[in-house]
Automatic annotation (TrEMBL):
Cofactor binding note: Binds 1 zinc ion.
Free-text function comment from the UniProt entry: Negatively regulates transcription of bacterial ribonucleotide reductase nrd genes and operons by binding to NrdR-boxes.
GO MF terms held by the record: ATP binding; DNA binding; zinc ion binding
Cofactor or coenzyme needed: Zn(2+)
Keyword Zinc: yes
NCBIfam families in UniProt: transcriptional regulator NrdR
Name assigned to this protein: Transcriptional repressor NrdR
Residue ranges annotated for the ATP-cone domain, each copy included: 49-139
Any one GO biological process: negative regulation of DNA-templated transcription
Length: 157
């Protein structure tokens, strides 16, 4: 590692530990030439995810878009911010575990709905109404019947 002060390549690590969130390693270094200390961080470089929109356009994956949609769907519901952060984390992890560099917005929406179904049914319907763009009452009722059918299956097991 090159010293940011004297530009020497001769540095040594004096301390190494994980950051609080566990996503990086903090290394305290000392330059052998000028004896000054500095800190570096080492983290995994993730391949950028590209989302393919319904229109066919592509954009970089933005976890905040999912979180904002969830916040709107869960407005005035008994769902904590921690639960929503966990949903976003699980969805992003599932996408990255597929090792695909591109994912459709439809796939992301389905993953979010699957997570919401287990947290809050009203939030699920709210999210589905925007995501699936219900055109009429019949499509809305079909989604409600689907949700009620799955609820009955869960209670029977």
């Amino acid at each position: 590692m090159r010293c940011p002060f004297c530009k020497s390549d001769d540095t040594k690590v004096t301390d190494s530990r994980a950051t609080d969130d566990g996503k990086a390693i903090r290394r305290r270094r000392e330059c052998q030439s000028c004896s000054r200390r500095f800190t570096t961080y080492e983290m995994v470089e993730e391949v950028p995810l590209v989302v393919i929109k319904k229109t066919g356009s592509r954009e970089l994956f933005d976890r905040n878009k999912i979180l904002n949609g969830l916040l709107r769907a869960c407005n005035k519901r008994m769902v904590t911010r921690h639960q929503l952060d966990d949903v976003v984390l699980r969805v992003e992890r599932n996408i990255r575990n597929t090792l695909a560099q591109e994912v459709t917005s439809e796939k992301i929406g389905e993953m979010v709905l699957e997570e919401l179904k287990n947290i809050d049914e009203v939030a699920y319907i709210r999210f589905a109404s925007v995501y699936r763009q219900f055109a009429d009452l019949d499509s809305f009722m079909a989604e409600l019947n689907y949700l009620m059918g799955n609820k009955g299956k869960k209670e029977n097991t």
